[in-house]
Design goal:
By secondary structure, the protein is an alpha/beta fold. It is built from 12 helices and 19 strands. It has helices at 12-23, 49-55, 95-108, 153-157, 220-232, 276-296, 300-328, 332-344, 348-357, 364-371, 374-384, 386-395, and strands spanning 5-8, 28-31, 46-48, 64-68, 70-75, 80-84, 90-93, 112-114, 119-125, 128-134, 137-140, 143-146, 167-176, 184-189, 199-205, 208-215, 240-245, 254-255, 258-260. The strands form 4 sheets. It has a 7-stranded mixed β-sheet with strand order 6-5-14-15-16-13-17. A 6-stranded mixed β-sheet has the order 8-2-1-12-19-18. The radius of gyration is 22 Å and the shape is globular. Bound molecules: flavin-adenine dinucleotide. Flavin-adenine dinucleotide is lined by residues 8-14, 31-34, 42-47, 118-119, 147-149, 154, 170-172, 212, 242-244, 262-263, 268, 273-277, 279.
């Protein structure tokens, strides 16, 4: 059987794109460099309830570990803002079994997954992607999808430089603790530990947590060890590292014969670096357009993929990117002042209501509503200073 669509990478984006194309009746092969699906795991595994609904996935016991309702957000001086919903907000999943579950769905729909198959190069002929180079062999296909993840090494080797910004290191570990609230995550803002990002504690059960951070500077693994020691008085055994994308989408995700999806395309929330949902949704759009290109032979469908996902999620990602740049500009002192102003003004209740109505993946609306609220604006003005505030307002047209 001749392969019609070849996909690089068996992460969520590659697998969802593969399943979508295969369901349209085309022969699809996925090339994955690792021998085991979903491993090594470096993901914290927090996926919004609405994100799973959008992807059409149920929280299967095979990968679903816990459900959380909100979070305690800390600044570096230990001040805490608590936001808790009455309904479940996010599922905590185990990424290894989750990726294996997506692979099983893809295989059931007819996809051929080739483990231990590292692609060395995407070859182009007359300006269009034409084959993959693996070891010493060449693999031909009509459509190619690059879902290789944040590193983008293959693209660079194939002469495509996306200029992706804001890619930082992310570290994750799991540990046993005496006791932890099972329905709340912790988020810590401290630029000394996690510059330009944050540190998280995610409960898996009453005695087990997943703990990690992202940072643009320094030795993140050492910083994570320091955080765990301070927070839990524990030593860490194994730390897994990966890359987090906080810089928004790359400029171009479609080339003749080739589409980029997921982390390699920057289809990731710049606020939290969560890419499973947005990447998965864009992968569906890529899969649909790949199937149309195969059906009609019209290369225009590659560009239609690029404009379709940008029309759907571009403005959301831009607003989150702006929020990320504001957050990156705040030092510990300013964050501490914002926290104490918000606590003094009793804004937790207001934030809880905003979050209850808001969407964890499509955050633009809640960001806009938060900063157009007069009471929140007052607290920001008091603590953050007028220059930062007028900057924020101008972006939203105030
Ligand atoms: C520490 C950390 C915590 C995170 N926590 C969360 C979270 O809680 N929630 C969330 O939504 N997101 C989280 N993310 C981000 C999330 O992991 C990514 O957004 C998501 O995995 C992107 O999916 P993808 O399919 O695009 O890429 P990946 O999942 O990275 O998959 C890419 C696949 O391609 C394979 N590959 C690469 N190059 C080649 C090649 N040349 N040939 C063959 N195969 C190749 C890789 O082995 C890999 O299996 C986290 C990331 C990190 C680093």
């Amino acid at each position: 059987m001749k392969t019609e669509a070849a996909i690089i990478g068996a992460g969520p984006s590659g697998l969802i794109a593969a399943e979508t194309i295969s369901k349209q009746g085309f022969n699809v092969a996925v090339f994955e460099e690792h021998q085991r699906l979903g491993y090594p795991v470096h993901c914290a595994g927090m996926i919004s309830v609405e994100g799973f609904k959008r992807l059409g996935i149920e929280p299967d016991p095979v990968f679903h570990q816990n459900t959380v309702y909100g979070g305690r957000i800390y600044s570096s001086d230990g001040s805490c803002i608590t936001i808790k919903d009455t309904k479940p907000r996010a599922y905590i999943i185990d990424r290894g079994p989750f990726d294996a579950y997506l692979a099983e769905r893809a295989v059931d729909s007819g996809v051929d997954i080739r483990l231990g198959s590292r692609v060395d190069e995407i070859k182009f002929k007359q300006g269009a992607a034409s084959s993959l180079k693996l070891n010493h062999s060449e693999f031909k296909s009509r459509v190619f999808i690059d879902a290789e993840g944040a590193k983008g090494r293959l693209l660079a080797r194939s002469g495509i430089h996306t200029g992706q910004q804001g890619v930082y290191t992310g570290f994750n570990t799991e540990l046993t603790v005496d006791s932890i609230e099972t329905d709340m995550v912790e988020v810590w803002f401290d630029t000394e530990t996690a510059k330009d990002f944050f540190t998280w504690v995610i409960p898996i059960s009453q005695n087990r947590v997943r703990c990690g951070l992202g940072t643009s500077q320094g030795n993140g693994a050492e910083k994570l060890r320091g955080f765990v020691k301070k927070r839990f008085n524990k030593e860490v055994d194994v730390i897994h590292g990966g890359l987090i994308c906080t810089g928004g989408p790359v400029n171009r995700t479609a080339y003749p014969g080739l589409m980029l999806v997921g982390d390699v395309a920057g289809q990731v929330k710049p606020t939290t670096a969560g890419g499973v949902v947005i990447g998965g949704l864009c992968a569906k759009i890529a899969g649909e357009n790949a199937a149309k290109a195969l059906e009609t032979g019209n290369v225009q469908h590659y560009n239609e993929y690029d404009s379709a996902w940008r029309a759907e999620y571009g403005p959301e990602l831009q607003t989150m990117l702006f929020m990320r740049s504001i957050l990156n500009g705040l030092d510990n002192d300013r964050v501490n002042r914002i926290f104490s102003a918000f606590i003094e003004e009793g804004l937790e209740e207001k934030f809880t209501r905003l979050v209850e109505d808001g969407d964890m993946d499509m955050q633009a609306d809640v960001i806009k509503r938060a900063i157009s609220d007069p009471v929140i604006l007052g607290a920001l003005a008091k603590s953050a200073g007028r220059i930062a505030l007028s900057e924020i307002l101008s972006v939203f047209g105030f």
